[in-house]
Amino acid sequence: SYAAIVAVGDQPAGSSLEVYTTRGGMPGVDLANVVWRRTGDTRYRGWEPPQTITGFDYAAYTTTAGDFIDPCVLRLSDDSLLIVFERTSTGQILGRRRAASASTWTVETIYTHPGGPYVSGARPCLVELPSGRILLFHCVEDATTSTVQIGMRYSDDRGDTWTLGQRVCLRSDISTATATVRRLRAAYLAGQIVLMVDLRDTATTYYRRLTQYASADLGSTFDLVDQWSGADADNQGAFPDVAATSDTIVLTYVRYDGTRSRPRCRRLGSAYAKFSAQTETKIQDDTNPMSWASYSAGDYTQGDMAICADDVGRVYAFGRDVSVAGLDDIAVRYTDDDGASWSGTGSSSHQTTKAMLWRGEDASTSPVNLSATWQRGRAVIAHTHTSTGTTADASVGVMFAGGWSSVQLPALTSTISHDTMVAWETTWLPYDMPEATGTAWTLATAGPPVIALGATGLSITGVLGQSAGWSAAPTTSLE
């Protein structure tokens, strides 16, 4: 047998990579491990699953409550990142773009809603075609007819400029007499585009009715393929997301089953395959105490689901634990078989015993409104957040998860894998002061210096002899 090594991204001319096998093995339980480095570097790099925070940045910073909502992130074919989101005060869809090797974001205004600020929301989402053309789908409201349509704009220069592609993509309007669109998500596979709509309809017993559209003309028009009735618990769900592998569209969503809101998956062979006719698989076991959304009286009041496919077709799902004991921690699940089966990553003292990407230990401070993509061996998660001590909750943050690092967290066994790697027991990002997020962090100062949060994160300003530091103890030991 032999192993194939595949590299993605850019390599400088004249440079080379050195790959070293740290542990021999075979596929399955007895796994092999490898590390790499650029020729001339001192340290090798090992890989961590997307269960540890390895970076953070603000793509768009604001201190106006509710001003930025619904971010959607996409890795483009040149490895740059593009994020779109709605600015509620102006009814605009704004964009932020960052080249793979850059550290700053370019600012773009992509679309201005002709009716001014939205009533229900733009709900923007992105798809890149094999040609490199980027499609932006968004809602277009008509207050006169009480309807909403889906519009499309496109860019052929990686998001620098945008052109109107279609004002009306759906063959029939969506009535807003009793319904609103809560989310759009799309994916491309084999010349077709699937568009999933999270429709909230108060005229049905269960409000959230997943609706499936499909396009065979690269997003110019969409046909209605399937829609849940909302009549019973088996025909409702919320927070859909889609990702395409080599031959499958993986659809995930959250559905209340009478006990708790659990993540579910269905696999589509094409954009026109009815999702309701496909076998539903469980992303987590029914014995798992985590709840991915809050449910009450036919509706979901909060929750999250974001998925992305890596370069070899593995799909990762990210969601918040909103159960009483969950403290909005973010779980990571993955599948190696296009969604037929799922597993959790790593290990921790969380109630699920699995690793948590975000573990702030404070239900009032956490990332929300998640959107995920894959870039250069790591997951990239765009989001807004909640906090109690700041006014920057609507800012669009970017969390980087996992990837190649010269310093790795340890594994519980000699076999390093998704299942054995540990993750941080306590995490923090500059949403609020550490000491204001629950009881995990303790602040110790001398002087003290001036401590502040802003667009660049946490800053400490002082003179010689002044200092500030925080410490945290994990909830429980893993021993």
Explain what you see.
With 479 residues, the chain is mainly β. Helices cover 0% and strands 47% of the residues. The strands form 10 sheets. Strands 8, 9, 10, 11 and 12 form a 5-stranded antiparallel β-sheet that branches. Strands 23, 24, 25, 26 and 27 form a 5-stranded antiparallel β-sheet that branches. Strands 3-30-29-28 form a 4-stranded antiparallel β-sheet, with no helix packed on it. A hairpin with a 7-residue loop joins strand 10 (147-155) and strand 11 (163-166). The radius of gyration is 22 Å and the shape is globular. 45% of the residues are buried. The mean pLDDT is 92.
Quickly describe the structure:
The protein is an all-beta fold and 479 residues long.
Topology:
Blueprint: E1 17-23, E2 33-38, E3 46-60, E4 68-75, E5 81-87, E6 92-98, E7 106-112, E8 125-128, E9 134-142, E10 147-155, E11 163-166, E12 174-175, E13 179-189, E14 192-201, E15 208-215, E16 223-227, E17 238-244, E18 249-256, E19 261-268, E20 281-282, E21 293-296, E22 299-303, E23 306-309, E24 315-321, E25 329-335, E26 343-344, E27 356-358, E28 366-375, E29 378-386, E30 396-405, E31 441-446, E32 450-454, E33 457-461, E34 467-472
Antiparallel strand pairs: 1-2, 3-30, 4-5, 5-6, 6-7, 8-9, 9-10, 10-11, 10-12, 13-14, 14-15, 15-16, 17-18, 18-19, 19-20, 21-22, 23-24, 24-25, 25-26, 25-27, 28-29, 29-30, 31-34, 32-33
